[in-house]
Amino acid sequence: MKAIVTGYSSGIGSEISKILEKNKYEVIKLKSRLNDKKSLQLEIKQILKENDINLLINCAGVGVFKPHEEIGIDKIQELIDVNLTAPIILSNLCLRSLKKTKGHIINISSIEATRHSKFSALYTATKAGLRNFSLALFEELRKTDVKVTNINPDLTKTNFFDDFNFEPSDNHNAHLTAENIAKKVFEIINFEGVITDITLRPQRLEIKKK
């Protein structure tokens, strides 16, 4: 069984990769930057010459949370490229292989895809786009037996918050962990049906300023 996991080097992507490798998956690690479309296309084509893919997990993501007029044009493009364009392109490139294996696409979106938060307009737009892409793609692929799942995690204790002025509270009831999300991903992969959309939340809502 072979899987492509983006964002495998840290956070949720790293934990997903670990649990897959413990369960006899070979995780293929992409070398291309997700915003370099030509390199990404060439790399995927080369991978698919030698492998059939059973699982595509789009986990890489970047964020910015501040007034929209203060966000630089390059940052706007980066969020769109990494959070939305790359998963759409990777799904496009891998679909023929996934149809052969009756595989599974899992997109890690965000709680922000389901609500409208202050200073999150850009991030929300990319994640809501990813969520709706997932749900529509599932309808397209139902007859092919390719599964599509969208996951909306709430505050998760990872390095995602390193560059922000806030982070999840240390209270274990107020944040998710990357390890627990990875466990849920593995449950979803093995579910005898399709979980098309799931939101994962801690019991409490607590953040702390840095």
Automatic annotation (TrEMBL):
SUPFAM superfamilies: NAD(P)-binding Rossmann-fold domains (SSF51735). Gene3D superfamilies: NAD(P)-binding Rossmann-like Domain (3.40.50.720). The keyword Hydrolase does not apply. GO terms for molecular function: oxidoreductase activity. CDD domains: SDR_c. InterPro entries: NAD(P)-bd_dom_sf, SDR_fam. Coiled coil: none annotated. Keywords: Oxidoreductase. Belongs to the short-chain dehydrogenases/reductases (SDR) family. This is Short-chain dehydrogenase.
